[in-house]
Amino acid sequence: MSGPAAPDGPLRVLICDDNEMLRAALAEVVGAQPDLALAGSAADAEEAIRLATAEQPHVVVLDVRFPGGGPHTARQITRAVPGVRILVFSAYGDQATRSEMAAVGVADYLVKGTTNARLLAGIRALGAEARSATTSGDRAGGTPDGLRTPRE
Predict the structure, then answer these.
(1) Which of 100, 45, 36 is nearest to 67 (CA)?
(2) How far is the C-alpha of 90 from the C-alpha of 64, rounded, in Å?
C-alpha cells in the first residue's frame, strides 16, 4: 500500500460504490486524468474504510446507499484519514439525505447523471482543500457549513 499522499503529486481518489460497472467507469475517468491517481475502489464499507486507512486518499467518492451504510462509512473514513474530503455521488438527491451526509462530514454532494467534467471539478476542488487541510493540520474533513452548494 502507498501510505500518505505526497503533497505535490497527483490527487489520490478512492471510489466507493457497490455497482461494479460504475466503479470501473469512475476508475477509468479518474485514471485518464494526469493530475489524479486512483487510490483504489471498494464495494462495501469494510473495504472502503480499510483502503482509506491504508491509502490515505485526498478525496473519497462515496455512494449513499452503500453496503455497510454511506453515513457510517463517511464517519469512519473522516476519523481515520486526516484532512480527507468526501464527495457523495448518489442517485438520491433529496434534502434529508443531503443533510444526513453533511452531518457526518461530507464536503460535497453530486447526483448521479452529472457530467464527467462536473464530477472531476468537484474532485479537484475537494482535493485542493484536502491538501490545504493536511498542511494546516485540519482534521475536520468537511466545510464549516456542511455541504457546499446542492448540485443536481
Answers:
(1) 45
(2) 6
